[in-house]
Write a structure and sequence with these properties.
Elements lengths: L2 H18 L21 E8 L5 E10 L5 E8 L2 E10 L2 E8 L9 E8 L5 E7 L6 E7 L4
Antiparallel strand pairs: 1-2, 1-8, 2-3, 3-4, 4-5, 5-6, 6-7, 7-8
């Protein structure tokens, strides 16, 4: 499959997931009480604002990890794929990520943390290691789990 075909498939999936979400760009759930965090596995629509103030969107897939409270994550943002891991601490998902660049010299890494709401919404920051500032992100669960 060509790179162009993969990008078209990614864009199609992002549009499809966005149409299935209840998100309007606002977090509506209360912060989850630590110790009573909902299961995060599923697909999410992602909205973000980078350090320059530019808005972006994409999808986030969260899969169960090796142990309770651990997750594997995959972001598809503007045709780029990023993968990472996360651990729930209290009502926060602390994460590390890396880009899946074909050329390893163009690969980036970063970290971040999302606050988890009772409605499985996520909000917080994600940054690139070595760069100033970070992106503010919100993730809304796809209603069709």
């Amino acid at each position: 499959m060509t790179r162009r075909a993969r990008i078209l498939i990614v864009v199609f999936i992002a549009v499809l997931l966005a149409s299935c979400s209840n998100s309007r760009g606002r977090i509506t759930g209360a912060d989850a009480p630590p110790g009573a965090v909902p299961d995060l596995a599923g697909n999410y629509v992602l909205n973000g604002v980078d350090p320059e103030g530019d808005e972006y969107g994409g999808v986030l897939t969260i899969m169960p990890g090796q142990a309770p409270g651990q997750y594997n994550l995959q972001w598809i943002v503007t045709g780029n794929i990023q993968e990472g891991t996360g651990v729930v601490e209290g009502n926060r998902l602390r994460l590390e990520w890396r880009s899946s660049a074909v050329d390893p010299t163009k690969s980036t890494r970063g970290h971040g943390a999302y606050t988890i709401t009772t409605g499985r919404e996520l909000y917080g920051m994600r940054s690139v290691d070595g760069a100033e500032g970070g992106a503010e992100e919100k993730a809304f669960p796809n209603l069709r789990r």
